[in-house]
Amino acid sequence: MSEAEETLQAFIEQLYAQAPEAAAQAAQALARFLRYREELLRWNERVNLTAIVDPEEVLTRHFLDSLTILTAVDPPICRLLDIGSGAGFPGLPIKIVRPAWALTLLEATARKVAFLRHVCQVLELEGITVVHGRAELLGRDPAYRGAFDLVTARAVAALPVVLEYAAPYCRVGGTIVLPRKGDSPEEMEQGLRAADQLGLTLEAQLSVTLPGLDDGRYLLLWRQHQPCPPHFPRNNAAILKHPAGERLGGC
Ligand SMILES: C[S@@+](CC[C@H](N)C(=O)[O-])C[C@H]1O[C@@H](n2cnc3c(N)ncnc32)[C@H](O)[C@@H]1O
C-alpha cells in the first residue's frame, strides 16, 4: 500500500471510529475510492477532467482534500449540494464516507456531467442527483431554493461570486463550506461584505494541511442566518461585472 493510500485509509478509519462494523465500512469506502480513481484517470485520457494525473496526488489533492470538509461540519444526516463539482469534488468523496446523506452534484459542463453519471453508477451509490446546469440559474428555481443543509463549492470562482452562487440554496441555519487557497485580503473583505448582503455570517476559518503539502489551504465556514434576499442570484453577467460586496465608487 502506498503512503498516500495509508494516509487515506487512516483518515477513513478515523471517520468510522464510532460506527458499528467500522472496519468493514472503512474497507468498502477505500475500495470505492480506488475504483473512483481508476475511472477518473481512465476517462481523463480522452476527456479533460482534471490536471492532477499522478495516482498518489489524486488521493491527497482530490480525495483527502475533499474529506477535510468533514472536520468542519459532520451532521448525522444532511442534504448536501456541491456547486461546480467538476469530476465530483468535494461532493462525491464525502458521499462515499457518508452514504446516508442526500447529495446533489451541480455542474455546467456536459462532459463532466457524463463522467459524474458514469462514476456514480459504477460506485453503486444511492441518493445522488447529478444536475447539468448553472448555479445562477438553478438558484432561482423554488424547488432548489433554501433546500440544502450544506453547500460546498471548490475552485469555482472568486469568493464574492461563489457566495452569491451558494447562498440561495442554503436553508436558514444551514452551512456553506468553501475550501479556499490564496484569497487576497481585498477579496476576503469583499467576501465579507457580500456575505452581509446574502444573509450569511462567517463562523470560522480553519487551516488545512494535507500530507506533504503545506500550501496555505483553508476552509471558510459560513452560516445562513437569514434567507438569501430574493433578488439573488442575479444573472451571471451582473454577478461577474459587479460582484456582491463591491465597493461603490463616487465621492
Ligand atoms: C476548476 S473546476 C473545479 C471542479 C471541482 N469543484 C474541483 O475542485 O475539482 C470549476 C468547475 O465549476 C464549473 N462551474 C463554473 N461556473 C459554474 C456555474 N455557474 N454553475 C455550475 N458549474 C459551474 C465548471 O464547469 C468547472 O467544472
Characteristic key phrases:
7-stranded mixed beta sheet, globular, alpha/beta, rRNA (guanine-N7-)-methyltransferase activity, single chain, methyltransferase, rRNA_ssu_MeTfrase_G, Rossmann fold, 251 residues, binds S-adenosylmethionine, transferase
Point out poorly predicted stretches: none
The CATH superfamily is known as: Vaccinia Virus protein VP39
How many separate domains?
1
Reported for the largest beta sheet, the result is: 7 strands, mixed
Structural class: alpha/beta
**Mean pLDDT value:** 95
Percentage of residues assigned to helices: 40-55%
Radius of gyration: 18 Å
Number of contiguous helices: 9
CATH hierarchy: architecture: 3-Layer(aba) Sandwich
Bound heterogens, unique: S-adenosylmethionine
CATH structural fold name: Rossmann fold
Order of helices and strands: HHHEHEHEHEHEHEEH
Q: Please report the distance between the alpha carbons of the first and last residues.
A: 63 Å
Q: Give the CATH level 1 class.
A: Alpha Beta
Per DSSP E runs of 2 or more residues, the count of β-strands stands at: 7
Could you walk me through the main structural features you see in this protein, from its secondary elements to its overall organization?
The structure is a single chain. This protein is α/β, with parallel strands linked by helices. The protein has a single domain (3-241), classed as Vaccinia Virus protein VP39 (Rossmann fold, 3-Layer(aba) Sandwich), CATH 3.40.50. The chain has 9 helices and 7 strands. It has helices spanning 3-15, 22-44, 55-67, 91-97, 110-122, 135-138, 159-166, 185-198, 236-241, and strands at 79-83, 102-107, 128-132, 148-152, 170-181, 200-210, 213-224. It has a 7-stranded mixed beta sheet with strand order 3-2-1-4-5-7-6. Strand 4, helix 7 (159-166) and strand 5 (170-181) form a beta-alpha-beta unit. Helix 1 packs across helix 2 (22-44), helix 3 packs across helix 4 and helix 7 packs parallel to helix 8. It starts with a helix and ends in a 10-residue tail after the last helix. The mean pLDDT is 95. It binds S-adenosylmethionine. S-adenosylmethionine is lined by residues 83-86, 89, 106-109, 112, 134-136, 154-156, 165. S-adenosylmethionine binds at residues 83-86, 89, 106-109, 112, 134-136, 154-156, 165.
